[in-house]
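One such given next:

>
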Amino acid sequence: MIIYFVRHGDPDYANDSLTELGHKQAAAAAQRLADSGITEIYASSCGRALLTAEYTATQRGLSVTPLDFMREIRWGSVSGEPILENGHPWFAAIALAAQGKKINNPNWQEDEPFSKSYIIEEAERVVTGFDAWLSQLGYSREGDYYRVTGTDTAKTIALFSHGGSSSVVLSHLLNIPLPQVCGMFHPEVTGITAMTL
């Protein structure tokens, strides 16, 4: 199975929608995916992801299935005490790397500021939901890898979501610590990442 991970277009966060530029980007992403062979489309249940997905769905004559677990992640201090970059996973990873600290600890949840941020429970929410969803699609997580358990896995799907939730999923799929993913990769708006399972 091929999964195209697509970040939403330029956001209007206040209205959980897209800006005029975001709509143009979503249309361009649909055009880019026109020959991809996508047969199923999924999206975070946030408006900006659903709106971005609709362009590809309309072009392909498909519907969009919303996935609550792919909603954007939150971060910030659990206790309200100040933490590095308020626990923002990208800014914190960059700040730690600039200080010469490693961002590739497989037990990153034990490192500050992540250990004091909502990011841990948010990442767990996304990973738990993602693995349950993949299980329905015929892939069961066993340790660090997936076993093919389904019979209809030779398909191509698209998953429209956010920089945060998709980074959590990519970290999980590739077995790379989340801070390292945040420090090395940053999905741009309507950025497309293809993964083959």
In short: The two ends are 5 Å apart (CA to CA). The first strand starts at residue 2 and ends at 7.
